[in-house]
Design goal:
Two copies of one chain form a homodimer.
Chain A: H1 7-26, E1 31-32, H2 34-40, H3 45-53, E2 65-66, H4 67-78, E3 84-89, H5 93-99, H6 102-106, E4 109-116, E5 125-126, E6 129-133, H7 137-144, E7 148-151, H8 155-168, E8 172-175, E9 188-191, H9 194-207
Parallel strand pairs in A: 3-4, 3-7, 4-6, 7-8, 8-9
Antiparallel strand pairs in A: 1-2, 5-6
Helix pairs in contact in A: 1-4, 2-3, 7-8
């Protein structure tokens, strides 16, 4: 069953497959083998075939995948063939940066509101996004049927915010606070670990850059 | 050769192996098989064995890996068994959030300075980190032997900043600007794509959450 197969890491691989397929399509490549796709995405062909096998049968044995077709299928698997409304909780530096992040809108994510406790921010707008009182969050989430929230509050407040989000009906949370959060089993939580991103560079410097 | 094997994605897997091994160690587990480690990190045993094979021979065939030993080896492979000095370019919302990010210091990354072009920011400090004139960057990087820079400027200025970093001697760049950057072959560039992080949630909502 998919849930037992560490789906978060599967979806990251699908994002990598999607990026590789988009580049292949732009380069005019029509057909690709699972081994080549795996290599381009930094994995291997067996993992590509296994990941895809959860979602049906793709490609022709001994020939490969149709690049455009597989790109569309993976967009649909990732759920980004539709627009999603997103709220941001915590309108500090990171929250403001996320509101201004141009990559979200380009990929069909729309930040519709931010929430904060700071009286000097509440009632203002940032880049056209209203900053609301966190006390209004439960009603807003229900009325607007928001499913996704981004948490950009200090680590000290993160668990209380997440509890409020869950009780308000949020189903999926992208958390930037560097702290382990607890959510019910049916809530999807993705923690962005910025240290891991720096580790990818120290790995390269150490192993390929002669910086040990 | 390692460079041809998409090392960025290998290092992300090593970060996942490290997190899994740290949890195992905290739970008192002494020995783990490559298949179990692969499963915990969302991959498979073959990939674990292949990834480790670039760095030597680990574990005992038919038995598994010593958890503590492999955790130390992977810390060393990731290059995080030492302290790294890091600079941030762009002291806007995202730059300030990164300066305040507690996860960096905990993992041995120290932000020693931020750089900006904004005259009202230059000469000030944020959370003890001095904000300097970007004109001083080349000399600072050389004098302090900085190897790693984080780019948190608007996408329009990102390429110019990266060119300046490279000519100043920076070897590795963590880029948050949602734009494709060009760097020489011997410079390590890691682009953080925040949209991919949201895609991981829409994937779960779509496939496991009944939100299609």
């Amino acid at each position: 069953m998919l849930r037992n197969k560490a789906p978060k890491f599967i979806s990251e691989r699908f994002s990598l497959y999607l990026r590789a397929l988009t580049q292949l399509e732009e380069s005019g490549v029509k057909i690709i083998s699972s081994d080549d796709l795996g290599r381009l995405a930094g994995g291997n062909g067996a993992l590509v075939r296994k990941d895809l096998s959860y979602f049906g049968e793709f490609g022709i044995k001994g020939v490969g995948y149709n690049v455009s077709e597989l790109r569309r299928e993976i967009s649909s698997i990732l759920g980004i063939d539709r627009r999603w409304k997103v709220i941001v909780v915590g309108a500090g530096h990171l929250g403001s940066a996320l509101i201004g992040y141009k990559g979200f809108r380009e990929r069909n994510f729309e930040i519709v509101a931010a929430f904060d406790m700071d009286r000097t921010k509440i009632g203002t707008e940032y880049l056209g996004v209203p900053i609301r009182d966190i006390a209004e969050l439960p009603e807003f989430v229900r009325r607007e049927r928001i499913k996704i929230a981004v948490v950009s509050v200090p680590r000290e407040s993160a668990q209380a915010v997440v509890d409020l989000l869950v009780s308000s009906g949020i189903r999926a949370i992208l958390n930037f606070a560097p702290v382990k959060l607890h959510v019910p089993e049916d809530i999807f939580l993705n923690n962005v670990d910025l240290s891991t991103e720096l580790e990818s560079l120290t790995f390269l410097l150490t192993n390929l850059g002669g910086e040990r």
